[in-house]
Design brief:
Layout (H helix, E strand, L loop, with lengths): L1 E8 L4 H13 L3 E5 L4 E6 L6 H10 L3 E3 L1
Antiparallel strand pairs: 1-3, 1-4, 2-3
Length: 67
């Protein structure tokens, strides 16, 4: 299992948590949102999901992934 912490802008409430964690789950990753810190800690199987896929799933929900 790979782990990464992604910086994300635009997260403010529980709906944001559910949207992002649900998007990650749908692509086979597990995420923990911390909107106070503006981060998402992700665990994923690199053989099935790439970090670029994770960032894209978050962006597709309307959030900005910061490098």
């Amino acid at each position: 299992m790979q782990e990464a912490t992604v910086n994300v802008q635009g997260m403010f409430c529980r709906s944001c948590i559910h949207a992002i964690e649900g998007a990650l789950e749908s692509i086979g990753a597990e995420g923990r949102v911390n909107f106070e810190q503006g981060t998402v800690h992700v665990q994923y199987n690199e053989a099935k999901v790439q970090l670029a896929d994770i960032k894209e799933a978050i962006q597709n929900k309307g959030y900005n992934v910061v490098a």
